[in-house]
Amino acid sequence: MALTREQVQLFRHNGFLRLPTKLPEAQVETLKRAILSDVDEVVEPVVRNGAGRVVRLSRLLDRDPIFRETVSSSLVLDPLESLLGPNIEVVLNRHNHATLNLADKPDSFHQDNLQWTRALVTVIFFLEETTLENGCTMMIPGTHLLPGADVRYRLDESQWIAESGLLEQAVPVPMPAGGLLAIDSGVT
């Protein structure tokens, strides 16, 4: 499903957009099974938290074929074509992972795009419903448009960000299981 002109404009303005498409429930369950199997079997490469628990599977597209099938499906590519044009490339060294977000360890605000010469669009696939109660994604609309924002990975540790009031502008982005969120990799 192609995006409307208004959806494209909203993405360009805010730096993120809930895509109008959603993964089918059966596909969500297949993705979850593949991820949990690799977590249970500790299929490397993985990232562990301080307690040694696996919290991320890296090189996801080199694992079960369901991952490549999902990222190359029309549910993903059709709306992305509205944002990027027809020549979409999957970048394997960025966001090619599954993250297990733990309720006891919220993620910090960050930007992903500082080392690139052009913007990247990331699609986040939600395999479980996220709400305010269980720790949904938080975004700061428009931060991808800030000129010369010299920040590193953790924005909450940057003094000028703390003094600017930007963090107080964050909005929750709850998502359903199967929901797809497109983000400009320069947005916070």
Overview in brief:
Helix content is about 25%, strand content about 20%. By secondary structure, it is α+β, with helices and mostly antiparallel strands.
Provide a descriptive summary of the structure in words.
- This protein is α+β, with helices and mostly antiparallel strands and 188 residues long.
- The protein contains five helices and eight strands; from the N terminus they run αβαββααβββαββ.
- Strands 1-8-5 form a three-stranded antiparallel β-sheet. A three-stranded antiparallel β-sheet has the order 2-3-4, covered by helices on one side.
- The longest helix is centred in the N-terminal third of the chain and has 16 residues.
- The radius of gyration is 17 Å and the shape is globular.
- The mean pLDDT is 86.
Q: Treating each run of at least 4 consecutive H or I residues as one helix, how many helices? A: 5
- Please identify the structural class as seen in this structure: alpha+beta
Shape: globular
The total count of strands amounts to 8
> Mind describing the biggest β-sheet?
3 strands, antiparallel
